[in-house]
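Why does residue order matter? Because the sequence determines the fold. Keep that principle in mind as you read this record.
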Amino acid sequence: MQPERRDRPARHVVRLAGETDFAGWREAARRLVLAGAAPGDVVWQAGAGSDLFSAETPLPEPSPDAVLNVPREFVERAEAAICHRDPSRFALLYRLLFRLRRQTLLLRIGSDPDVKRLGEMEKAVGRDVHKMRAFVRFAKVGDGPEERYVAWFEPDHFIVERNAPFFVRRFTGMRWSILTPQASAHWDGERLAFGPGARRADAPAEEAANELWRTYFASIFNPARLKVKAMQAEMPKKYWRNLPEASLIPDLIKGAGRAAEEMIANMPTSPAPHHKAVRERHWSRLEAEAGDGAGAKTIAELRSAADDCRRCPLWRHATQTVFGEGPETARILFVGEQPGDQEDLAGKPFVGPAGRLFDAVLEEAGVDRSLTYVTNAVKHFKFEPRGKRRIHAKPNAGEISACRWWLDRELDLVRPDIAVALGATAAQGLLGKAIPVTRMRGEIVAREDGLRVFVTVHPSYLLRIPDADAKQAERERFLDDMRKVKKLMAA
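Structure:
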């Protein structure tokens, strides 16, 4: 069969660097649109492929006065759609861009075939991103310095580069690789890199370590709430072959009815009121005595003692104690509120978004972060579960008071010239009482032991400001606070 010939050769052939080369597509599309190149005159190719009937010409250079205004919404949606597997996606996006110059409200026309197809691609990519986050299972490889975690996943679309930053944020503290047939992502603890696709044989074989996943899945399986169709909609069978726990699903479903009956029959009765009172006294005594750390001579010894802290109930649901870090000779000690989700997983303070903002502002203010000690008023992550997320919850006065034991021990060992209270919880932990941070921001309050406490906001406050101008203004104000702190260090 002879290939179908076009009436005339295409004027332009654009070869992109790869399947997700959005930057390359964007630059080429900008030039072509400004030159007035019709969508039918452009052939888009990913990689080193060629088109037998295309006549390639250099991309036109736009005039210096040419301006292309594109809605931000289109750019964001195009970044998602370009990850779709459909080879016609590049042409579709260019056609939409070409039409947007005359139809500025095109994206609002849901019945338009091109807009409708864009929405379908977005949703398909979004579903694939969600499935990857839900069904990637890491297996440990090696020990000691060679330890890393490797996972195999088979996405429907080209989502590895788009999705990898999520895994960096979620698993910052471990070295990992995610292998897929299209591409691979690698995190060494500091740098994210991408490589070519892999084979299933390149990933670790199913081992005894996967028993952890099976044990966890079986323990959280609730037969009384089983809805098979809903479960299979959320966890399609095509993913089962790569999930260690998948082998348990048929038996768990089969025995769900009997297990639910047994669970109801074995439900404990409520204890008598005096039993509850005795239990609470017992736990209060244990929590007050555990992990004392009174005899610690170094921060390392104090940190080790705090690993077993039971002074308040927050330890029950947190992953681990997140203790302070920094030299014991630090002249300045920063106190935040409590660990966040990323700090709870990494076991280190100030490693999440607020911590990165904090580091950037310190550097800009000329404060050497390595010469400071950073800690939190509360050492365990307090949160409220919301779906698959853990939402930060404000520590109460009792939790702050219980954890002040550790903060005072840190101050005794470090003996800083000045402490900086980052937010209201930190101020309450340092001063033993609540103060109006907004009104007292930038002021210095002396403790009974003579330690100077500089009061300011927590950097997470800046991240919650929705207005860009207001956020920038508050950042400048926080930067001024840090410059004042540096002057106090030199005083």
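The longest strand covers residues 12-16.
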